[in-house]
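Justification of computing resources. Each target in the renewal requires a structure prediction run like the one illustrated here; the chain below, 160 residues long, is used simply to show the kind of job we budget for.
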Amino acid sequence: MSVAFTKEDSAETASETMLPERPIPDGPNLVTAEGLALLQRDLEAARSAYEAAMGVDDINERRRLAAIPFRDIRYLSERVRTAQIVPPSPADCTVRFGSTVTFEREDGRIQTYRIVGDDEADPSSGTISFRSPIARALMGKTVDEVASVAGGDVEIVSIS
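Resulting structure tokens:
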């Protein structure tokens, strides 16, 4: 085998285990109280994983195991530091940050989403970021109002 395809020294360099930074969205870091708690929980989990990795004797394995938690600690520390808790919305039936909105699409599908911060958004679990096109189209609307989303219209059925 050609030497060009092998490493003469099997030790990894530090740069091989440094991961690119997780991108931080521009603008305010709005969160619900639950979202901040999730960020803090994830930060503690990353710190625990990093500490466990630091206990590994083999330096190459230590670097490999520590790379993701080390990157996550940097990201999550910044997200916790910049978090701006948005208090629960008043019950005035207007879509706002933290609202749970049920709407009907033109094809008859009914969907429900809670509008939350970037880090707590998970559409498959029923939460969307306040920056998402759907959330931006729904913000400020009330029940029975129509919003244009992705080239179609949706009618707001309920807000809580």
